[in-house]
Sequence to fold (121 residues):
Amino acid sequence: MNVVISIVTVLYLINAALLVIAILLQSGKGGGITGAFGGGGAADSAFGAQVGSPLRKVTAVMATFFLAVALALAIITPKQKGLEGDKPAVTQEDSDKQSGDLKEKPADSKEAPKADDSTSK
Fold:
């Protein structure tokens, strides 16, 4: 299973690098932020009729593959437990044991030694 995860992870990283390159190679629409609010022409809008360049189609396929592989990795990768595992930090037994220890031990009646007053003269 580890070999499969390693291969899929390598494919994922290669796809991610190629996806970044494909996105950076695309030419901008030139509309800036006005294109997001309806400016820059209707043909360039995100949902309008577009003539897809081969680079855009490759980018869309790579992005779909990227998301599919990310989902597959999330499913097949074994779940790691926290530092303490599934066990809570303090169990009821630990709590009872600690409170029992406090009840059984008598308070220490020795006082702290007093400071020597001869040094303060």
Summary: Residues 2-25 form the longest helix (24 residues). Residues 62 and 81 are 32 Å apart (CA to CA).
